C-alpha cells in the first residue's frame, strides 16, 4: 500500500465526513481509551494479587479468581474497543483504496450507504458488548464472592473470597456502561445527521 493510501486511511479514521463522527472519534479515541488505559490499570491492575479466599492458599486463590473472572475487565474492554473500530476501519480502507475523498462520501448514494452500514455495525457491536458485559460482570461488584471449590478441595464445596476495592470497581463498571451508551447515542445521531444532509436540511461539509 502506497504512502498516499496510508495517509488517506489515517485521515479518514481521524476525520470522518460528519461533525458527530468527528466528535465520536475524539470521544472514543481520547476519553474512553484514556479512561480504560490509565484508570482501568489503577483499579484492576493488582486485583489477582489481592484476591484472597478462606483458606488463604495460593491454589485456592487462583482457582477462585479464575472462576470469579473468566476474562479480566481490561481485556474485555480492550477487545470491545478494537472490535468496534473494525467496521469504520474497513470503510476508510475501502475509501483510501478507491481514492474517495471525505467530502465525497455524503455526495454519492453508494458511498453514503456503505458508510451508514459501517456506523450501524458499530451500533450492533456496542449493543452486543453491552449485553456481554452484563452477563460477565453485572452492575455491581460485591465485597464477598462465594466460590465453588468442589473440584479442587473435597473437604468443602463453598468458600468465601474477599474482592479488593469492590466499590471502585462498581463505579468503574457503571462508567464503562455509560461510555457504551454514549457511543451508541453518538452513532445514532451520526446516522440522523447523514440523513439530514442527504435531505438538504443541513449543509454538507
From TrEMBL:
It is found in: Cell membrane. Residues 125-194 form the Connexin cysteine-rich domain. One of its GO terms (cellular component) is connexin complex. It comes from the Eukaryota. It is a multi-pass membrane protein. The chain crosses the membrane at residues 25-44, 75-94, 114-134, 171-192. The keyword Flavoprotein does not apply. InterPro entries: Connexin, Connexin_CCC, Connexin_N, Connexin_N_sf. Pfam families: Connexin. GO terms for biological process: cell-cell signaling. Keywords: Cell membrane, Disulfide bond, Membrane, Transmembrane, Transmembrane helix, Transport. Its main location: membrane. GO terms for molecular function: gap junction channel activity. Belongs to the connexin family. Beta-type (group I) subfamily. A connexon is composed of a hexamer of connexins. This is Gap junction epsilon-1 protein. The gene is Gje1.
Amino acid at each position: 500500500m502506497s504512502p498516499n493510501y496510508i495517509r488517506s486511511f489515517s485521515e479518514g479514521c481521524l476525520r470522518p465526513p460528519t461533525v458527530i463522527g468527528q466528535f465520536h472519534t475524539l470521544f472514543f479515541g481520547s476519553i474512553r481509551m484514556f479512561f480504560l488505559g490509565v484508570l482501568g490499570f489503577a483499579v484492576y491492575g493488582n486485583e489477582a494479587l489481592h484476591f484472597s479466599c478462606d483458606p488463604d492458599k495460593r491454589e485456592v486463590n487462583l482457582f477462585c479468581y479464575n472462576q470469579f473472572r473468566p476474562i479480566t475487565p481490561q481485556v474485555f474492554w480492550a477487545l470491545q474497543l478494537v472490535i468496534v473500530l473494525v467496521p469504520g476501519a474497513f470503510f476508510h480502507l475501502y475509501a483510501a483504496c478507491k481514492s474517495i475523498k471525505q467530502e465525497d462520501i455524503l455526495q454519492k448514494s453508494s458511498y453514503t450507504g456503505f458508510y451508514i452500514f459501517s456506523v450501524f455495525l458499530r451500533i450492533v457491536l456496542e449493543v452486543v458488548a453491552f449485553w456481554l458485559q452484563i452477563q460477565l460482570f453485572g452492575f455491581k461488584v460485591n465485597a464477598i464472592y462465594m466460590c465453588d471449590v468442589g473440584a479442587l478441595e473435597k473437604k468443602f464445596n463453598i468458600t468465601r473470597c474477599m474482592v479488593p476495592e469492590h466499590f471502585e470497581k462498581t463505579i468503574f463498571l457503571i462508567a464503562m456502561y455509560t461510555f457504551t451508551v454514549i457511543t451508541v447515542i453518538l452513532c445514532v445521531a451520526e446516522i440522523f445527521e447523514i440523513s439530514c444532509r442527504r435531505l438538504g436540511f443541513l449543509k454538507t461539509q
